[in-house]
Amino acid sequence: MFQFKQFSVEQDRCAMKVGTDGVLLGAWSPIPENIFSVLDVGAGTGIIALMLAQRTNAEQIDALEIDEEAYEQAVENFENSPWGDRLFCFHAGLDEFIEEPEDEYDLIISNPPFYTEDFKTESEQRDLARFADAMPFEDLVEAADLLLSENGIFSVIIPFKEEEKFIALAKDFDLFPTKITRVKGSPTTEIKRSLLAFSRNVLENFPLDELVIETSRHIYTEEYIALTKDFYLKM
């Protein structure tokens, strides 16, 4: 079990455990004004939806998870949280979910699978959680366009090397960057991740910055502590 300040996450049945990417995205994502509804695509343990329940007063927080074990675990984590009445998980793939869309969402958020290399592990469940062919970026962006409310925000975390491609893809669906943060593990390492937020409005001078996680092993930067201190117990 992973214990946060206001909730806990059981993760023994999930291929993708609680990790820095999910926590970063859940803490970093911009929140639209007067937010009513949130959709977490590819929920895993439910960590991001739980963080959004803590951060916002959104009345409807839906999550989508295709893997049965992960889905059942997310449901348990939601029920055991202080916000169980606002959290709901669908056991479905994105393609099924968008066939008959019933709702628009003010915030669509996803830590999508993004291992596109040609190797696979022995665990089919883990592969599903980690490989982009389970949920191609094109499908994700198309779904965001379909389900995002007029003034909504679409937030993702992806490998930095995919950033340019992802922004171009979003532009094809008239979704434009509203905030970008590039993430490095330490001051001397390469940029590894991109946190991207999109809206339907073109912003000429949107914020673009860099976040360094630690200065040396387990010595976290002030920026990383400020971002995650409402969640991690030891921050």
From TrEMBL:
InterPro entries: DNA_methylase_N6_adenine_CS, SAM-dependent_MTases_sf, Small_mtfrase_dom, tRNA_Adenine-N(6)_MTase, tRNA_adenine-N6_MeTrfase. Transmembrane segments: none annotated. GO terms for biological process: methylation. One of its GO terms (molecular function) is methyltransferase activity. Pfam families: MTS. Specifically methylates the adenine in position 37 of tRNA(1)(Val) (anticodon cmo5UAC). Belongs to the methyltransferase superfamily. tRNA (adenine-N(6)-)-methyltransferase family. This is tRNA1(Val) (adenine(37)-N6)-methyltransferase. It comes from Flavobacterium qiangtangense. The lineage of its organism: Bacteria, Pseudomonadati, Bacteroidota, Flavobacteriia, Flavobacteriales.
